[in-house]
Design goal:
CATH class: Alpha Beta
Number of domains: 1
Largest sheet: 6 strands, mixed
Distance between the termini: 26 Å
Number of helices: 3
Oligomer: single chain
Number of strands: 6
CATH superfamily: Dinitrogenase iron-molybdenum cofactor biosynthesis domain
């Protein structure tokens, strides 16, 4: 099994469609056996589900994620856990142990708006769409 995490500087990147990197973890017998940071090569939003599928990813941990991306992931057979923040490695370990705190209702639907200095009802901050606080 492979788990991908939207990734930046060791942490879960707050917006699926704008991530420049994923950290992809190879899992065997419930343990991480390998992990590597992989570039999106500048691709975003619509192309990312196909990229993840091509890498053999079956699960995704991310911050905010829009409805279109959610649909693309579901169509690709990728289960996603949105609304996650914090350390990427710790998030994967939490998923593997069944203790990952995520938001099954996460949604980001205000693309094109300038998030700088704004605080949105959905919990978005100046970095984009972190999804939500930890639940």
């Amino acid at each position: 099994m492979k788990i991908a995490v939207t990734y930046e500087d060791g942490n879960v990147f707050p917006h699926f469609g704008r991530t420049q990197q994923f950290k992809v973890y190879e899992i065997e017998s419930g343990k991480v056996t390998d992990a590597q940071v992989m570039s999106t090569d500048g691709n975003g939003h619509g192309a990312l589900a196909g990229i993840l599928s091509g890498w053999g990813v079956t699960k995704l941990i991310c911050g905010g994620i829009g409805a279109g991306a959610q649909t693309a992931l579901m169509e690709a057979g990728i289960q996603f856990y949105g609304g996650v923040a914090g350390n990427a490695d710790e998030a994967v370990e939490a998923l593997l142990s069944g203790t990952l705190s995520y938001n099954p209702e996460v949604h980001c639907d205000h693309h094109g708006h300038d998030h700088q200095g704004e605080d949105h009802v959905c919990g978005h901050d100046r970095h984009g769409c972190p999804g939500s606080e930890k639940f």
